[in-house]
Amino acid sequence: MGQDEDVAGADDRRGEPGAGREETPSGVLTKVSPHVRRLVAPNPSAFTFTGTCTYIVGEGEVAILDPGPEDDDHLARLVGAVSGERVAYIVVTHTHRDHSALAPRLAAAVGAPIVGARAHAARPGAPAGLDAAHDASYAPDAVLADGEAVRFGGLALTAVATPGHSANHLAFALEAENALFSGDHVMAWSTTVIAPPDGSMSDYMASLEKLRGRGEEIYWPGHGGPVRDPSRYLRALLGHRRQREAAILARLEAGPATIPEIVQQVYVGLDTRLVGAARLSTLAHLEDLTARGLVARGEGPPLAASFRRI
């Protein structure tokens, strides 16, 4: 699950959120760089663009990154794509079902261990349904810590902890190409949904700043085409979120408001399919603002409570 709530209204200006919506057709194996092939799963939606990008890294001895959703055709295409090769690892960036659900069947088919993100841990007392996107059956053979690498065929994928979109989100650096597999943390086709309780705006912003300190020249995301100017794009993403925060605070300066009221006034012209995501991302901003002592929350469930400026 990738897309944020405001993509439908985003401008296609290079270097800004929503720019570079390169088409990535599903079901077609494409060599996108010397060491990387991409196969897009057939799960297009308002939240996944043309589908989840599965990457085959290496040749001869390979790793498959983000096997994708539970889908017979995608499984068959992946197995066919690596016919005659040894799959050393199945690597998972995070446990949203559109990224990890196919992992067990793929592992059985190719005889490879599942490594990467830790299993999702639901927060005690979290509202029912808000963790529904997670793959509850995901069980990795090994969890990779920040900076830990898997090696195969003369290549290495190094884990980069990037919590925010999900608490267990990892990106993976491919040093041989100065590239980063950015999962759902950074995508060229849209901004990223941050949905509490597992999603955290403060963690997401910190992870963006963390990536700014790295030097990869290209990102391969979980949905859509590559991010070709990461440094500039990261600045744009940070600026976009700060503008959204400022708009929420400006609304609360006028008086207390609930999340539906904030969304109605801040997200003008929003696609009705994305209202739920907009409310969750607004909640993520409000949780961050509350923790920073800028906003106070009233009584009641978070999506029904009134928030006020302090």
Please explain how this structure is put together.
With 310 residues, the protein is of the alpha/beta class. The chain folds into two domains: 7-238, Ribonuclease Z/Hydroxyacylglutathione hydrolase-like (Metallo-beta-lactamase, Chain A); 240-309, Winged helix-like DNA-binding domain superfamily/Winged helix DNA-binding domain (Arc Repressor Mutant, subunit A), CATH 1.10.10.10. 49% of the residues are buried. It has helices at 72-81, 97-100, 103-110, 201-212, 230-253, 259-266, 275-291, and strands spanning 30-33, 36-40, 53-57, 61-65, 86-92, 114-116, 142-143, 149-152, 155-161, 170-174, 179-183, 218-221, 257-258, 295-297, 306-309. Strand 8 (149-152) and strand 9 (155-161) form a beta hairpin. The protein contains seven helices and 15 strands. The strands form three sheets. Strands 1-2-3-4-5-6-7 form a seven-stranded mixed sheet, with helices on one face. The chain starts with 29 loop residues before the first strand and ends with a strand. It is elongated and about 65 Å long. Helix 4 (201-212) packs antiparallel against helix 5 (230-253) and helix 6 (259-266) crosses helix 7.
Q: What CATH architecture label of the largest domain applies?
A: 4-Layer Sandwich
Strand content: 15-25%
The CATH superfamily label of the largest domain reads Ribonuclease Z/Hydroxyacylglutathione hydrolase-like
On the 0 to 100 scale, the average pLDDT is: 91
